[in-house]
Amino acid sequence: MRNIFLVLILLFLFVNSAFAGTVFSGQNTEVLIENSFARESIPGTSISSAYMTISNLSAKDLRLISASSTVSDRIEIHEHTMANGLMRMRQRDHVDISAKDSMLFQPSGFHLMIFDLKQPLKAKENIIITLHFDDQPNIDVNYIIKGLKQKKHHHH
Fold first, then answer.
1. Among 3.40.50.300, 3.10.450.50, 2.40.30.60, 2.60.40.1890, what is the CATH number of 23-146?
2. Which residue stretches of 1-45 are H helix?
């Protein structure tokens, strides 16, 4: 019996590592979070931003209403919009994700703004951000921190 339990734990760990960066809500598979990452904080600042893809696999609409984390007491949902040739960023109260649809959180679009960081975010570290939904269990999402300087590919 002990061997079966050990095999089940190892199987769980293997399957869990195979889906790193992919998070299902609780026990069901109605919400899928993929490609989650946050930006390294700029030296001397206490802000960052986080991105992901939220897929609503259910037959009903979904509403993201907030986010929280131990790295900051203030995370807001923001959206970049273009108005009169100027890029504006504004806070949003929520984001709706239609049934059987996805919402991409990306630079120059929807994103999470992380204010008042308790300590700087460093490249290759991980943080957990909890996503809060209107009518769905909270989801803890692992975000890898990406550096400010991305390697450029040289073409010869």
1. 2.60.40.1890
2. 2-18
